[in-house]
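user: can you give me the structure for this one chain? tokens are fine.
assistant: on it. calling the predictor now.
[tool input]
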Amino acid sequence: MEEHHATLVQLRAYLSQSGKRPNDRLPPERELAQQVGVTRGEVRKALAILEKEGLVWRHVGKGTFVGDRSPLKSLDPTHLVHHCSPSDVVRARMTFEPALAAEAALQATPRDIEAMREVARQSREAKTWREYEACDNQFHKLIADSTQNLITSSMFDMLLSVRRTMVWCRRRTDTVRPLPDHHSFNEHEYIIDAIAERDAASASARMLEHLLSVERQLLTPHSPLALTKPVGRDAEHDNQLDQYNQ
């Protein structure tokens, strides 16, 4: 017990004197044990106590980090998806993506715009819903990346991760692919045109119109989509289940 207490004291002193900031990684347990002058087993026990106290947090396979992980959990898609509804995802998109489209209108390169047009073309030619959904994901990601801003692009990646993790139950329909008049086809092209014309206000408005159309498709009583909470992996592979992508 005395050794255990001594290890805690030494590790607390190490944390206070190391100059490490929250979420900085600590040395591996073996190296930390050598620096503190105790056994690796004692370090492991002491770290478990410090983790309960919120002074460190551990990620299997990645190491031990300074501080409390709970603030990071709120940004973890696998955590968020269990605390959000499909409606939350749609509303978050309405808040964020019109602004991305407006910024893209100001920052997108000719190559970015050409890539958007190519993906829009591919989505029209998709032979299955899955192929279409892959194109749809890529289209919205291209807009985020064309802002030329790593911060906003990374924020979109988190939103996209939640969107893709959320499971949406699609009742059987008569089509294996989007119909030629699927609402997203023209809506995507309107967004691209506004970006190409460098019209930020129009790009934002077109994106919002598109997302409102998505919301109507998902939330109206006659929608072919039913919204569900995340389910187990077996159900994820059932052919009646699809991710939310519009």
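assistant: here you go. The longest helix spans residues 86-107. The two ends are 59 Å apart (CA to CA).
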